[in-house]
Amino acid sequence: AEIYRQVEDLPEVADSIVVGQELDGDVRVILFVQLAKGVALDADLCERIRQRIRSATSPRHVPTRIVAVDEVPYTRSGKKVELAVREVIHGREVMNRAALVNPGCLAQYPERLAAAEEEACSVR
Question: CA 52 to CA 49: how far, in whole Å?
Fold first, then answer.
């Protein structure tokens, strides 16, 4: 919740969702952001997002990847669905699709994450 508060306070970010990605026996923090209309995710915005998170929380909360998405998945009761995003980026089946308002948006997550591995918003 603290990460969301820091990120979504930025006028460039309309919404966000953060998940842990299992990788090589570790877990890295991935932040997906839905940007405000007309805003592009660039290295400067990524750095401002990271700085806000680092100063308000701790270095371990700073995302390894920041990835732009078109939409954040929500349940019918209005809650963000981190579990569904985590499952889909790991190539696992999402069991509760019927509980989501917008299950179709999940398809973009693994594709966008794969593309982000080569972009400026990745920490290497």
Answer: 5
